[in-house]
Amino acid sequence: MKQLVLGSMMMCFATMASAHGCPGEMRAIDAKVPTANLSAADMSKVKALREEGEKLHKEGKHTESMKALAEAKKLLGV
After folding, report:
1. In angstroms, rounded to a whole number, what is the distance separating the alpha carbons of residues 17 and 66?
2. N vs C: which end of the chain shows fewer Cβ within 10 Å?
């Protein structure tokens, strides 16, 4: 029983940690966008990925959100 409770708590903390990662990634993107030197097409893609990441985060799809945000950060060179 003790192992079940500990396992459940670990899963809960892992989920919460993942959920809190998304806003930090969004803040990093938001901070870099004003000074980024990208083509208009790349900047549009970054903004679309940022919006998609936020939408997925709000839907509770944190893994997918982090993937979209990571792609936006890659384009920004963050």
Report:
1. 12
2. N
Q: What pLDDT is stored for residue 78 in this prediction?
A: 87
User: What's the mean per-residue pLDDT of the chain?
Assistant: 84
Structure-token pair, residue 63? 């893994």
How many angstroms separate the CA atoms of 67 and 77, rounded?
Answer: 15
Q: How far is residue 56 from each of residues 20, 22, 24, 62, measured CA to CA in Å?
A: 13, 10, 14, 7
Q: Torsions phi, psi of 61, nearest 5?
A: -95, 70
- In this prediction the pTM is 0.73
